[in-house]
Design brief:
Number of helices of chain A: 8
Oligomer: heterodimer
Helix content of chain A: over 70%
CATH class of chain A: Mainly Alpha
Structural class of chain A: mainly alpha
CATH topology of chain A: Rhopdopsin 7-helix transmembrane proteins
Order of helices and strands of chain A: HHHHHHHH
Largest interface: A-B, 36 and 25 residues
Radius of gyration of chain B: 18 Å
Shape of chain B: globular
Distance between the termini of chain A: 50 Å
Number of domains of chain B: 1
Number of domains of chain A: 1
Radius of gyration of chain A: 18 Å
Number of strands of chain A: 0
Number of helices of chain B: 5
Number of strands of chain B: 0
Chain lengths: ~230, ~140
């Protein structure tokens, strides 16, 4: 069973995920960022499901293991589509929604195919390996896509502070996860140590999004070129 | 090999996103003007713009006020950004004068952010006191 610190982090993360949805509803941003909010609501439901399975079967059980990795893969795909919805916001003036949707599905299919080719050698538990591999690869693809989106924001001089903060925090979240997964693959012997980082990293996104919805209004503007690491 | 490349890319992207995110937090507070009281308190005003060397002092004042969970994470994030700037200032900025000027400017912005947070905490403390007196 998880210790007190893990339980507290779990609770904090769930409360923050709820806070994101509540803040978005209160500030009238729920429908504007519908997929982002649905992702947060799905995260809360998955967390409750995990908690139930954990208490019923225990942390070392195969039931919990399967539930954890399969739900994680589904949430990662959900987050991937949340990211593409941010693309739609940035490119809304260009009427490129269909193009974004096709591109997102095509890239997801490509990532799925790549993950399958990586795991097809393993005879046992092919689907489970595939699900874990897909999750890891999607974090990296998500990171690259967020970086491209950030470049587009700078190029197109997108100035909505709320949107910019949503994108940047998503970038921080994806890069932290991608780095953690890479470290786990580089040092398999210390995998447990890096796995322990997953929970604190999970707090980053709901915390930043709750702040963005609560404190920033949709009218707040910022000069994006001032935020770039290399001045534009 | 592949994992190594992914790790390096992730760290580079992480740094870029983190710095930009911190600057977006700072930019939001840069538009706010400080009250005369906080200007007197911190010594930051029109005659003396915020300097990086004052960051630790303003942070000390900040920690003397009741904690506000709403801004705690933001202050921690900007504090980490400030430490990163100190590292750049102590290393790479010594070789490039332009980089040195940039880090000094950014450190000053961090101090101004902390002063704005101090202003908010003072206002919050006053509200709490007023509520207690009303009760």
């Amino acid at each position: 069973m998880p210790g007190l610190a893990e339980n507290l982090l779990w609770l904090l993360c769930t409360l923050l995920e709820c806070a994101v949805v509540v803040c978005a509803v209160k500030k009238g941003a729920f429908r504007r960022y519908l997929i982002l909010n649905l992702y947060m609501a799905a995260s809360v439901i998955v967390t409750l499901g995990r908690y139930r399975v954990l208490h019923q079967y225990g942390i070392g059980s195969s039931e919990y293991c399967y539930f954890y990795y399969y739900s994680d893969a589904l949430l990662t795909i959900f987050l991937y589509f949340a990211l593409t919805s941010l693309y739609a916001h940035v490119f809304s003036d260009m009427d490129a929604n269909r193009l974004v949707r096709f591109g997102a599905v095509g890239l997801l299919a490509g990532t799925g195919l790549f993950s399958y080719l990586v795991v097809q050698q393993s005879n046992a538990r092919l689907i489970t390996h595939f699900v874990v591999e897909l999750s890891q690869n999607l974090y990296f693809v998500g990171l690259v896509l967020t970086y491209v989106l950030w470049a587009a924001i700078l190029k197109m001089r997108e100035s909505r502070t709320q949107l910019i903060q949503l994108v940047l925090s998503l970038g921080v979240y994806f890069s932290l996860f991608a780095a953690t997964y890479a470290l786990r693959n580089l040092f398999p012997a210390k995998s447990g140590l890096f796995a322990a980082l997953v929970q604190p990293i999970g707090v980053v996104l709901p915390l930043a999004w709750a702040y963005a919805f609560w404190r920033l209004s949709s009218n707040d503007r910022v000069v994006p070129s001032r935020l770039a690491v290399v001045p534009q | 090999m592949m994992a190594g490349i992914i790790f390096v890319c992730s760290v580079v992207f992480l740094l870029q996103f983190f710095v930009s995110y911190c600057r977006s937090l700072i930019a939001a507070s840069a538009k706010q003007t400080l009250s005369l009281e906080v200007q007197d308190f911190t010594g930051i005003g029109e005659s003396k713009p915020a300097a990086g060397d004052d960051f630790a002092r303003v942070l000390q004042f900040l920690h003397m006020c009741p904690d506000n969970p709403e801004d705690r994470a933001r202050i921690q994030a900007v504090g980490t950004y400030f430490r990163m700037l100190n590292l750049v200032r102590a290393t790479a900025a010594k070789l490039a004068p332009a980089l040195r000027a940039w880090t000094e400017y950014e450190r000053g912005q961090c101090t101004y952010f902390a002063a704005v947070a101090l202003e908010r905490r003072i206002a919050m403390s006053r509200d709490m006191l007023a509520q207690q007196l009303d009760a």
